[in-house]
């Protein structure tokens, strides 16, 4: 098990002259609870960790390089795989950055379709995140309830774009096709069922003393740390920073929509701990439902996609776009050299920064808490490695 | 004391010279032991297997899904299929593991578990051995599993297994203390350690059960339940096999038949927990004297005992489906800072109670029974409310 230079042999002499050593454990790429292939080299003194060094790269697929080979249009399915749990946001990011390069305006209805798809995906992603978090902590039932709701969302999204997980729904200039007939009724019916379910979910686990004890006060990440380590999204908002790209650097039709930005409530614990991150995600789902209802009320008619040439040759230059993905501010940066293949595409994801902060917060935590931390930071391996 | 049919059978074999020069007393003893072993293993293995199936179906319904329903009618034979599959697997021993300890560990664990059934009665006459120290025997023998678990954790030569094994050892050994301390009040009240004696000191009606004897025994019931959950490595105390942290804890490196043994013990332990609670607090096999026919009465007692014990098992499964698991340090502090002092208070309180009222304080006993019924009634009311509110839904068509 090589560590590329940061392996340190620590020997400590205990109080009675006995030599003790820290245990070096490998929470390897294959593990039931690391969310994807993540590897941590954990130096532990019994149950207490001294250091958890993340080792990334097990899911690296050179997606950014592939963009240079397949062109702007062809890259859209690949963007799904950058974060397959919240694929709509990746689609939106790439489409937005290409539109910015090519100076294309998306029709209003297309933007509304994008927001609907994105918010549905946000709910689905948060359900997965919250479900796996409680599963890792040991409660096996709320996971199934979350996935039961997620199944309905998958069905809705399948009806929209044909796929349950990697949607490839958005195109440069808009979306691939309009909402199917009767879609609004189905989604609103789902939301009517979903919001009480969320309350029931809350009843089951959120106030459960064991759960609160496991999460409250664990891995407190304050504002300064969050800024220093570039945390975004619910991780940042749980630390008390009310920053949301949809509100502070608005894009698409978010300026016309009304929603709150929940921050870490500090109930049951401290602002910035794992419980706050969990609570922020639960509240964000309610806000997404609110946005969805407004979208269906406000949607205009019209085309859903602008006219974009088949061989899309944006003028040379670069553009950067940020979308508020389920995991936070996802930055898409593309450089064009005038041909139909981008010169460079770069994705900046929230999970990568979250991996870095695990090393910092894990000193002094117990082994069981490492799992809580990883789950509460909502790290997904495809986002980390791309 | 050999039953006559067995004695006649063995006499016949002795006359045929099957046992050579062995004295008859030893032959009878061997005979009894063999029959008891066959019965116990037959019962235990089947109960453990069926419990796995029932647990999966119960969990599934709680989690709004169906559970295994393919193998056999309603999936009843699922556990047989799983057992056969595990037996047919390749025997894998990690290259760096200690082969002797690795192979020995499952046997030690199974031994510790099955031996407890010797003193657990099924009816007034159906008990392998009515030991005078029955309850003490059960608690001491169930602690043998710690040795097996430590062996498994250590011999696997895997740091995660070791952590799991050590957690299990710490947990089981710690929770022995509130468990034993919560059994002592019952021993004080009934004056005997024998399981049959304790059951006979109770009556068939709930107002004659020890759980309602005094507020101290009521609390002792809950403390014992918690402590036995921790002993059996059940959620919320299932850290040693915390799947999300340690892959599978101390059984990570085990596969096939050895894995089967460990899990047999875990699920069979549920039955022991249920049986112990029933013996000590819930009246055991006592039934109202509805018939004079001894066989029928014993059958009724058997059914009552197993049904009550299984109710406890179902509640344990329910708890596992609902609660998350607590962390090691929280587990230790729960035991040592909360359960142990409470158990001591119970013990002293019961000692005083028994000194004041050697045959029980009838008014308090009846009052506690009423309170118990009120609590149970409220519990069922809430359960019914939630059952009515939740409708089961099967997603048969995605676009309906």
What are the SSEs and their pairings?
The complex is a heterodimer of chains A (386) and B (400).
Chain A lengths: L10 E3 L5 E3 L1 E5 L11 E7 L2 E8 L7 H12 L1 H5 L6 H16 L5 H30 L3 H21 L8 E2 L2 E2 L7 H24 L2 H7 L7 H6 L5 H5 L6 H4 L25 H25 L18 E9 L2 E9 L7 E5 L1 H12 L5 H10 L4 H5 L1
Antiparallel strand pairs in A: 1-2, 3-4, 4-5, 6-7, 8-9, 9-10
Chain B lengths: L3 H12 L8 H39 L15 H10 L11 H16 L19 H9 L1 H12 L3 H32 L4 H6 L14 H17 L11 H4 L10 H25 L12 H29 L5 H29 L5 H28 L11
Helix pairs in contact in B: 1-2, 2-3, 2-11, 2-12, 4-6, 4-11, 6-7, 7-9, 7-13, 9-11, 9-13, 11-12
Briefly characterize the structure:
The complex is a heterodimer of chains A (386) and B (400). Chain A has 386 residues and is of the alpha+beta class. Chain A is built from 14 helices and ten strands.
Report on this model:
The complex is a heterodimer of chains A (386) and B (400). Chain A has 386 residues and is of the alpha+beta class. Chain A is built from 14 helices and ten strands. Chain A has helices at residues 63-74, 76-80, 87-102, 108-137, 141-161, 183-206, 209-215, 223-228, 234-238, 245-248, 274-298, 350-361, 367-376, 381-385, and strands at 11-13, 19-21, 23-27, 39-45, 48-55, 170-171, 174-175, 317-325, 328-336, 344-348. In chain A, strand 1 (11-13) and strand 2 form a beta hairpin. In chain A, helix 3 packs antiparallel against helix 4 (108-137), helix 5 runs antiparallel to helix 6 and helix 6 (183-206) packs antiparallel against helix 11 (274-298). The longest helix of chain A is centred in the N-terminal third of the chain and has 30 residues, at 108-137. Chain B is mainly alpha-helical. Chain B has 14 helices and no strands. Chain B has helices spanning 4-15, 24-62, 78-87, 99-114, 134-142, 144-155, 159-190, 195-200, 215-231, 243-246, 257-281, 294-322, 328-356, 362-389. In chain B, helix 4 (99-114) packs antiparallel against helix 6 and helix 4 packs parallel to helix 11 (257-281). The N and C termini of chain B lie far apart (69 Å). Mean pLDDT of chain B is 86; it is low at 396-400. The chains are: A alpha+beta (386), B mainly alpha (400). At the A-B interface, helix 4, helix 5, helix 7 and helix 13 of A face helix 7, helix 10, helix 12 and helix 13 of B.
């Amino acid at each position: 098990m090589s560590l590329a230079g940061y392996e340190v042999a620590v020997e400590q002499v205990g109080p009675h002259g006995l030599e003790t050593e820290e245990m070096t454990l490998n929470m390897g790429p294959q593990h039931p609870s690391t969310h994807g292939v993540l590897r941590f080299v954990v130096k532990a003194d019994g149950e207490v960790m001294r250091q958890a060094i993340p080792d990334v790269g097990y899911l690296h697929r050179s997606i950014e390089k592939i963009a240079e080979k397949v062109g702007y249009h062809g890259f859209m399915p690949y963007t799904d795989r950058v974060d397959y749990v919240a694929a709509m946001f990746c689609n939106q990011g790439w489409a937005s950055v290409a539109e910015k390069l090519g100076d294309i305006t998306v029709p209003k209805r297309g933007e509304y379709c994008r927001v609907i798809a994105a918010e549905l995906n946000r709910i689905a992603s948060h359900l997965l995140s919250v479900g796996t978090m409680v599963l890792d902590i040991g409660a096996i039932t709320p996971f199934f309830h979350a996935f039961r709701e997620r199944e309905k969302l998958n069905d809705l999204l399948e009806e929209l774009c044909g796929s349950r997980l990697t949607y490839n729904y958005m195109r440069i200039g808009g979306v691939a096709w309009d909402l199917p007939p009767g879609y609004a009724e189905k989604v609103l019916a789902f939301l009517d069922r979903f919001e009480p379910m969320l309350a029931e979910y809350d009843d089951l686990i959120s106030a459960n003393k064991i759960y609160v004890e496991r999460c409250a006060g664990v891995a407190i990440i304050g504002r300064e740390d969050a800024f220093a380590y570039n945390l975004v999204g619910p991780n940042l908002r749980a630390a008390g920073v009310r920053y949301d790209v949809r509100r502070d650097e608005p894009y698409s039709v978010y300026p016309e929509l009304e929603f709150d930005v929940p921050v870490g409530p500090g109930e049951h614990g401290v602002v910035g701990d794992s419980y706050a991150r969990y609570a922020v995600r639960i509240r964000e789902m309610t806000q997404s439902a609110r946005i969805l209802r407004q979208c269906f009320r406000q949607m205009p008619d019209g085309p859903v996609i602008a006219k974009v040439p088949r061989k899309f040759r944006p003028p040379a230059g670069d553009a950067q776009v940020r979308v508020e993905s389920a995991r936070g501010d996802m930055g898409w940066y593309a450089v064009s050299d005038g041909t139909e293949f981008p010169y460079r595409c770069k994705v900046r994801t929230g999970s990568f920064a979250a991996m870095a902060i695990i090393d910092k917060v894990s000193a002094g935590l117990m082994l069981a808490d490492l799992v809580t931390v990883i789950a509460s930071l909502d790290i997904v391996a495809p986002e980390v490695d791309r | 004391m050999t039953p006559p049919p067995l004695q006649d059978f063995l006499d016949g074999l002795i006359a045929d010279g099957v046992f050579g020069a062995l004295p008859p007393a030893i032959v009878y003893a061997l005979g009894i032991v063999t029959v008891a072993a066959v019965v116990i293993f037959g019962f235990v293995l089947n109960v453990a297997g069926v419990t796995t199936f029932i647990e999966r179906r119960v969990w599934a319904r709680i989690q709004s899904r169906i559970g295994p329903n393919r193998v056999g009618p309603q999936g009843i034979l699922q556990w047989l299929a799983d057992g056969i599959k595990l037996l047919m697997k390749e025997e894998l021993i990690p290259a760096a593991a200690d082969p002797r300890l690795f192979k020995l560990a499952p046997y030690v664990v199974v031994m510790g578990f099955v031996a407890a059934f010797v003193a657990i009665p099924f009816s007034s006459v159906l008990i392998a051995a009515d030991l005078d120290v029955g309850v003490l025997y059960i608690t001491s023998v169930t602690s043998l599993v710690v040795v097996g678990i430590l062996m498994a954790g250590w011999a696997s030569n895997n740091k995660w297994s070791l952590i799991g094994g050590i957690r299990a050892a710490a947990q089981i050994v710690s929770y022995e203390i509130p468990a034993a301390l919560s059994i002592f009040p019952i021993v004080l009240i009934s004056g005997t350690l024998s399981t049959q004696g304790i059951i006979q000191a109770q009556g068939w009606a709930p107002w004659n059960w020890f759980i309602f004897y005094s507020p101290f025994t009521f609390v002792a019931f809950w403390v014992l339940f918690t402590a036995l959950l921790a002993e059996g490595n059940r959620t919320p105390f299932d850290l040693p096999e915390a799947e999300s942290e340690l892959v599978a804890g101390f059984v990570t490196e085990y596969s096939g038949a050895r894995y089967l043994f460990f899990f047999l013990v875990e699920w069979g332990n549920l039955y022991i927990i249920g049986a112990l609670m029933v013996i000590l607090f819930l009246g055991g096999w006592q039934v109202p004297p509805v018939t004079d026919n001894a066989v029928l009465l014993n059958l009724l007692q058997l059914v009552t005992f197993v049904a009550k014990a299984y109710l406890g098992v179902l509640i344990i499964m329910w708890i596992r489906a609902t609660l998350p698991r607590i962390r090691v340090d929280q587990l230790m502090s729960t035991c040592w800072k909360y359960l142990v002092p409470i158990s001591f208070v119970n013990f002293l309180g019961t000692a005083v109670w028994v000194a004041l009222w050697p045959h029980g304080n009838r008014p308090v006993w009846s009052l506690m029974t009423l309170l118990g019924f009120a609590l149970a009634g409220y519990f069922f009311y809430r359960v019914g409310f939630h059952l009515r509110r939740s409708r089961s839904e099967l997603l048969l068509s995605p676009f309906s």
